[in-house]
Design a protein that fits this description.
Layout (H helix, E strand, L loop, with lengths): L2 H30 L8 H11 L11 H13 L3 H27 L2 H12 L2 H6 L6 H20 L5 H15 L4 H13 L10 H22 L4 H10 L14 H12 L3 H12 L8 H8 L2 H10 L13 H19 L2 H26 L5 H8 L22 H17 L5 E4 L2 H11 L4 E3 L30 E4 L3
Parallel strand pairs: 1-2, 1-3
Helix pairs in contact: 1-4, 1-5, 2-3, 2-20, 3-4, 4-5, 4-7, 4-16, 5-16, 7-8, 8-10, 12-13, 13-16, 16-17, 19-20
């Protein structure tokens, strides 16, 4: 490679680096300011986990709690401390997309464009400011793609242990990480020249290291009646419930519609095109086949699940990591080799999707600029719809929790001044979690299972009023509910 090509390559790398660093700084500045969005219910619940460290929890592995605890020790036990791991993991994921694109396509220009495209997606922006399990999970999935491509396709021996370690950490974040391994096995089985990996130690080293990530989760569940497995079965629609129809015939249509919306239409269509063009039997390049197999099976699995249960928007996120790289390659090819009209058409649609993505992202983080319009769209409150704005402004669900916590704290202090020591409880696990964070107390309980809410970590921690009522006889409670 001549000096000119090297300079051009490093220009693209520097441009991508600047974009990632500046966007990370923007997210840090946002979550540091007092007017940022309140913690989401999941974030508050995971913060509670971080105050009671364990090797696993009711519905997830321990990684999210460990990260939040470490971050709060470093940056302070506040919103910034809770959310800083999301910024770090999200930025590492974006870097992983760049590396993967370069290793597959050998084009830094394309890799930089993939990074820019990812940064304009509202879902990516949200995942870098809200600390849920998806931040470390998607980071681990993305770097597993990098190491997996090196190990399976390029046959680099050093990459096998790195892949196993990344998978193990990912499993500690989210059980869905096991789908990565299943998809990789399908890819190897589909390629006769790659099946030799089953006879070599590298693949089995990955299995052994990844299995180590399952040990803490299995050990914890062994002592807690396998509650995590029952939770996942119920969530995925595997377990039968009398109140659920056997088949949700409109489920696949709803699933496809939500996926179309979350990718702003254009990017979903581009992804579909790349999946069709590079499908098995048509694609000879093993690197592109690898990207296909690490995307399509996950998407199709959740499409099948939609017949039995509601598929949440974030479930399919890992499918679009390798899919985004493959779709970027497809789009780049047609933008550089297609006819003039095709290039103009694709460029115009891409520019429109980028503009819409940036507008939605900025509106979500600074909703004050669009709230007057949303208020007019929502209309006035009515007896049957007291909070119409929630239909048009999803960030409403991330506002007001700090005020609830402050009011509960004031009420508790008032009761203490009269000689009463109140216990705090709520009808839902998320009310209890938010109040715990914003009132700064861990003495909070959930009555959820007694009033129709699902079980949660509150039902695992003992003692609690549901499982140990005798220990709470005669106690005074501040009870939080919405009617």
């Amino acid at each position: 490679m001549d000096a000119s090509a090297i300079r051009i390559r490093w220009r693209w790398r520097m441009l991508a680096t600047v974009a990632v660093v500046l966007s990370a700084c923007w997210h840090i500045a946002y979550i540091s300011q007092p007017g940022s969005l309140d913690l989401a219910p999941d974030e508050a619940h995971y913060w509670m986990w971080s105050q009671c460290l364990d090797v696993s929890y009711y519905s997830k592995g321990p990684l999210v709690a460990w990260l939040i605890r470490g971050s709060c020790e470093l940056f302070g036990d506040d919103v910034l401390g809770v959310r800083m791991p999301a910024v770090v993991c999200g930025s590492a994921m974006i870097v992983g997309l760049y590396v993967l694109t370069v290793r597959v396509f050998g084009c830094d220009r394309l890799a930089c464009l993939v990074v820019f495209g990812a940064l304009t997606l509202p879902a990516v922006a949200l995942s870098r400011s809200v600390m849920t399990i998806d931040a470390p999970f998607t980071c681990c999935w993305c770097w597993s793609l990098v190491f997996g491509h090196e190990a399976i396709v390029r046959r680099a021996r050093w990459a096998w242990p790195a892949l196993g370690a990344t998978l193990a950490v990912g499993i500690l974040a989210k059980y869905t990480m096991l789908l990565w391994l299943a998809s990789a096995v399908l890819f190897i089985l589909s390629s006769q020249e790659l099946r030799l990996h089953f006879r070599r130690p590298g693949f089995w080293i990955v299995i052994a290291i990844a299995a180590a990530g399952c040990v803490p989760i299995l050990w914890w569940n062994y002592g807690h009646d396998w509650v995590s497995f029952r939770h996942v079965n119920a969530l995925s629609g595997v377990s039968d419930r009398a109140d659920k129809p056997p088949i949700r015939w409109l489920g696949p249509l709803v699933y496809l519609g939500t996926q179309f919306a979350i990718l702003l239409g254009f990017w979903f269509v581009i992804w579909l095109c790349s999946m069709f063009v590079h499908r098995p039997g048509q694609e000879s390049n093993p690197s592109k086949r690898f990207l296909w197999w690490l995307s399509a099976p996950t998407f199709l699995l959740f499409l099948a699940c939609s017949l039995r249960t509601e598929v949440l928007l974030n479930w399919t996120a890992p499918a679009y990591l390798s899919g985004l790289v493959l779709a970027g390659g497809w789009l780049h090819h047609h933008l550089t080799t297609g006819s003039l009209w095709k290039r103009l058409y694709l460029s115009a649609n891409a520019a429109f999707a980028i503009a819409v993505g940036l507008f939605i992202t900025l509106s979500a983080f600074h909703v004050e600029f669009v709230r007057p319009m949303l208020v007019r769209l929502a209309g006035p409150p009515t007896q049957t719809n007291r909070m119409p704005l929630r239909r048009f402004d999803p960030t409403c669900r991330l506002r007001g929790w700090r005020y609830l916590g402050a009011e509960v704290s004031l009420l508790a202090e008032e009761m203490r001044s009269h000689g009463e020591e109140p216990h705090i409880a709520a009808s839902r696990w998320y009310y209890a979690s938010e109040v715990a964070f914003y009132s700064r107390t861990m003495e909070v309980y959930s009555f959820g299972p007694a009033v129709g809410d699902r079980q949660s970590q509150f039902d695992v921690w003992r003692p609690n009023p549901i499982c140990d009522p005798s220990q709470f006889f005669g106690k005074t409670f501040i009870f939080i509910d919405v009617r």
